[in-house]
Fold oxoglutarate dehydrogenase (succinyl-transferring).
Amino acid sequence: WACRTGNTHRGNTLTETHTQLIVFTPKSLLRHPDARSSFDGMLPGTHFQRLIPDDGPAAQRPDAVKRLIFCTGKVYYELTKERQKRGLEETVAISRMEQLSPFPFDQVKAEFERFPNADLVWCQEEHKNQGYYDYVKPRIRTTINKAKNNTHLVELRRFLDTAFDLEAFIHKFSNY
């Protein structure tokens, strides 16, 4: 079983109302060695993962990560192969979205906050006007804006504290 296909089957099985499941997958992943689920991932107590976070070397040192790539589908395997070829395992994190609807806002936010110094990138094989880009872009922006709202409040507090600190500017204008 390919990870994505197995994950999708488990997700459909665990819902209260079972719907018809149509899965379009490329044959290239059918026997791909990295596209397999372990039996441990199918035991009782396991659950469907809407987003699979990076758990490689980048996850060990999140502050060193310079780029966080979100993707879905088979492009993940091409990205990980190229990342390894270029020796960027410690500075580039790749997270897979296994379910786009409903969008995993909470998990995208957690990944964004986990890698504070990283640029965020959505990667897909299709052209920009095809694929999931137009669906994902506003949702990722919403998630980032909510995550950065806390940063804005910290900066606002610092600004206000400085503005009302009567000692803050005494030495700056003493020559006038």
